[in-house]
Amino acid sequence: MLLYLAEYLSQFDTGFSVFQYLTLRSILGVITALGIALIVGPSMIRKLSFKQIGQVVRDDGPQSHLSKSGTPTMGGALILVAIAISTFLWADLSSRYVWVVLVVTLAFGIIGFVDDYIKLVRQDPKGLLSRYKYFWQSIVGAGAAIFLYYTAVVPAETELIIPFFKDVIIPLGAWYMLLAYLVIVGSSNAVNLTDGLDGLAILPTVMVAGALGLFSYLTGHSEFARYLAIPYIPGVGELTVFCAAMVGAGLGFLWFNTYPAQVFMGDIGALALGAALGCVAVLVRQELVLLIMGGVFVIETLSVVVQVASYKLRGKRVFLMAPIHHHYELKGWPEPRIIVRFWIITVFLVLVGIATLKIR
After folding, report:
1. Residue 110 and residue 320: Cα distance in Å, rounded?
2. Chain centroid to CA 139: how far?
3. By CB count within 10 A, which of 66, 113, 132, 205 is most buried?
4. pLDDT (tens digit, 0 to 9) for every residue of the chain, 360 residues total?
5. CA separation for the pair 315, 177 (Å, rounded)
6. Closest CA to 56 of 117, 110, 114
7. Which residue blocks in 121-201 are alpha helix, DSSP H?
8. How many angstroms separate the CA atoms of 52 and 288, rounded?
9. How many domains does the chain have?
């Protein structure tokens, strides 16, 4: 929005042309989203507390979580507001990539909101039934995948890039839609499963979003893309602003979500952020790199799959409790130790993901 204003004002003063630079608008995106989160956060927490929209803790979970009962939840709305406003202000709103990722993020946020509302306001611990939640996730994910496939402009938009190999590119054709759908929906649920400890999910999300912002910038820049031997997709660089907004909003939320948390993001935040990461990865053709950088999310998800499969097939549990962060809690690890160690793992994995730009 402000980009258009800057373009108009540059007719009178060339100094306003500086806002054409994607790097500057991305920096402003981080600052804007962070500022919104820090300013709005306290009042939102007070409002959630006043309305008694607090966390309901399971009796069969770690006993240390019982003290968290009543902590304000649905704070993910703060993240979504900060991301949306910052993106609207600094991104090029003529970009279909920006609109696709915004619509997917907000749509998954609505699904999460309904789930949180049923659990916290209607006091129904089941929330939105899994089959309905997955149905609506599938509708949004499949809709985005179909739209992107039929609006693709260059072949690179529907090709699978293999990390660490310069010349291994697989044309997916219509299979692209299945891959895009699985990445968006899978990423959404993976982040949601990880969101079980104070700050555990949000900082890895911030780190992965920052790395994807780098990928989007390089993928949308013809010279950098050619130098690094990655696909050049015209216009996809605008997603750098969106990723920057995610970083700023996530850091602002972490200010209140760090241990001991003053607010939880709830499904409204976790489902939306996961879908956003998946959607950006699809758009910049780095689905496999997302799998590497989001390794913590992958491990959390696999721990649940393994636990359920083992119990159904063998009648035995592999972990003391799934997702795996609860396993370490029940082994006696202090919550901050689990959180920080998972953060450190994410730093390493994100660096490995970025390294794929040169190790090819």
Report:
1. 33
2. 18
3. 205
4. 777 787 777 788 777 788 889 999 999 999 999 999 999 999 998 888 877 665 655 555 555 554 566 688 888 999 999 999 999 999 999 999 999 999 999 999 999 999 999 988 877 777 899 899 999 999 999 999 999 999 999 999 999 999 988 788 899 999 999 999 999 999 999 999 999 899 999 999 999 999 999 999 999 999 999 999 899 999 999 999 999 999 999 999 999 999 888 999 999 999 999 999 999 999 999 999 999 999 999 999 999 999 999 999 998 999 999 999 999 999 999 999 999 999 999 999 999 999 999 887
5. 37
6. 117
7. 130-150, 175-194
8. 41
9. 1
DSSP state of 72: B
Distances from the Cα of 27 to the Cα of 15, 31, 247, 319, angstroms: 18, 6, 10, 42
- Does some domain include residue 295? yes
CB 175 within 8 A of CB 218: no
Please name the residue that has the structure tokens 């996961």: 274
> In terms of residue numbers, what domain contains 77?
2-355
- Tokens matching residue 8: 């108009």
In a domain, 329, yes or no: yes
- Rg over alpha carbons for the chain, rounded to the nearest Å, is 20
Structural domain includes residue 360? no
Is residue 150 included in any domain, yes or no?
A: yes
DSSP 8-state secondary structure symbol assigned to residue 57 = P
H helical segments located in the chain: 2-9, 22-50, 76-90, 96-120, 130-150, 175-194, 202-219, 222-228, 239-257, 266-283, 287-293, 295-314, 324-330, 335-355
**Residue 196 near residue 321 (C-beta atoms within 8 A):** no
CA–CA distance, 290 with 282 (Å, rounded to integer):
9
